[in-house]
Specification:
With 155 residues, the protein is an all-alpha fold. The protein has one domain (3-13, 30-141): Hypothetical protein af1432 (Orthogonal Bundle), CATH 1.10.3210. It has helices spanning 3-8, 10-22, 33-49, 56-65, 77-91, 96-107, 119-129. The protein is globular and about 45 Å long. One fe (ii) ion (FE2) binds at residues 31, 35, 39, 66-67, 127.
């Protein structure tokens, strides 16, 4: 399982440390390891349910890395994460095709489509489904629109 190497990668660990430092005391959703694993598991389910044929190693890599750009200040975190993810994936032995696919879904993970037809659709949707809005104390202050907020654990 190549994705296990990501968890132990020094660049990855450093980025996670920076994000956690930046988000200390944040009342809205945080972007920690728990979030990444929730996204990985939900994305895996969505791929199975929608007959999207992607390896588990690729799904987990994309989920673990999708918010890594939040460790870089300024600009769009999805775009910012692409270069860092590229380095980490290469260090962890992912092949060229997988690196291209994973970095592309990281770049576009903010765009949620109505249907789940591609791996990118599944990751973007899993990112939304992962949030426990139904338990959130900052529910009323959150910028998410009512139709996106999770009223119950869909997955
Ligand atoms: Fe994100
Ligand atoms: Fe996310």
């Amino acid at each position: 399982m190549k994705y296990c190497q990501i968890i132990n990668n020094s660049k990855y660990k450093q980025a996670i440390r920076i994000i956690s430092e930046n988000e200390k005391g944040r009342k809205f959703c945080i972007h920690d390891y728990g979030h990444f694993i929730d996204v990985a598991r939900i994305c895996y389910i969505l791929c199975l349910e929608n007959n999207i044929n992607v390896q588990k190693d690729v799904i987990y890599a994309a989920a673990l890395l999708h918010d890594i750009g939040r460790s870089i200040k300024g600009g769009d975190h999805a775009q910012n994460g692409v270069l860092l993810a590229f380095d980490i994936l290469n260090e962890c032995g992912y092949d060229k095709g997988d690196v291209e696919l994973i970095t592309e879904v990281i770049r576009s993970h903010g765009h949620v489509s109505d249907d789940i037809k591609t791996f990118g659709d599944a990751l973007a949707r899993a990112d939304k489904y992962s949030r426990r809005c139904y338990l959130c104390e900052a529910y009323d202050e959150c910028y998410w629109s009512e139709d996106i907020k999770n009223k119950y654990p869909v997955y």
